[in-house]
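Q: Focus on the shape:
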Amino acid sequence: MNEYRIRYTLEDMPKNYIGSCKKWAHNEKEAVRYLLKKNADKDGHCVFKRGSSGRILSVQEVKH
């Protein structure tokens, strides 16, 4: 398993807010699935598990 850092924005936060979290998963898609209720739309909007909507900015593997 690998550790991934996911950067995202939320629509209900100030415009310059960028959140991040770390998830352990086998691949990038699985790491993002742990964060979202459903997959992102074609235009990039997604709904997070806590009910907020926003966008995923980047997913990067953390090297130890």
